[in-house]
Amino acid sequence: MDNYIITIARGFGSGGKEIGSRLAKRLNIPCYESQILKMASDESGLNEALFQRADEKLDAYSTIKNYLKKIPFNELAEPSDREFTSNENLFNIQSQIIRHLARCESCVIIGKCADYVLKDFPNVISVYIEAPRAACVESIVGKLGITEAEAHKMIEKTDKYRADYYHYYTGGGYWTNPVNYDMTLNSARVGRERCVDVIEQYMNIKWKC
Fold first, then answer.
1. Torsion over CA of 101, 36, 120 and 28, rounded to 10 degrees?
2. What is the chain written as a DSSP string?
3. What are phi and psi of 56, to 5 degrees?
4. Cβ 27 vs Cβ 106: under 8 Å
5. In this predicted model, what pLDDT tens digit does every residue of 148-166 receive, in sequence order?
6. How far is the C-alpha of 19 from the C-alpha of 10, rounded, in Å?
7. 12 within 8 A of 114, measured Cβ to Cβ
8. Nearest-CA neighbor of 90 among 126, 148, 40, 152?
9. How far apart are CA 158 and CA 184, in angstroms?
10. 131 phi and psi, to 5 degrees?
């Protein structure tokens, strides 16, 4: 295996980002999340803020328009095209960066529908990290210093957005569907460091490293 990619999808507060970062550090490879937006900006020449806005919020008008027009999420618009700065094309540019990474280097990618974008790549392992609500709340309260009520609201809002984002850009896919992933790990039961161990062991099994 010349290079490999580990994609991490995660419920808010489950520690998925931390697990992905620890795994990347152990394997001595890069870990990408928001950096994908900067790379897409550099590649396209568009302001990074456009990618950040598209990544943070689904535009209702854009959603309806795409449903009606059936705009494919795999074709890039030309710079002269009025759709060049649409959310759909920004996602396509971002996806192009992710596919380029999968062909050229080993890395961990957090979020960004990377499991879907790379579903046909043989050098990819996709992992979904989740934890019971109580464990997620405890983690968020400890990390952000907010109340439990505020943590519950953040989890509901963030996980709903992630589910809607995934559903929209994958053409109706379900973010938490275990079939999308090689494995789903409960970080509260397994432990975050041991989640890293399990993923690394699975890499050895799948690819006979």
1. 50
2. ----EEEEEE-TTS-HHHHHHHHHHHHT--EESTHHHHHHHHHH---HHHHHHHHH---HHHHHHHHHHT--TT-PPPTTSTTTTSHHHHHHHHHHHHHHHHHH--EEEESTTHHHHTTT-TTEEEEEEE--HHHHHHHHHHHH---HHHHHHHHHHHHHHHHHHHHHHTTS--TT-GGGSSEEEEHHHH-HHHHHHHHHHHHHHHH--
3. -95, -25
4. yes
5. 999 999 999 999 999 998 9
6. 10
7. no
8. 40
9. 19
10. -155, 155
pTM of the full predicted structure? 0.83
Give 43-78 pLDDT, tens digit per residue. Answer: 667 666 776 766 655 554 344 344 334 444 455 444
CB atoms within 10 A of CB 184: 15
Length of the chain equals 209
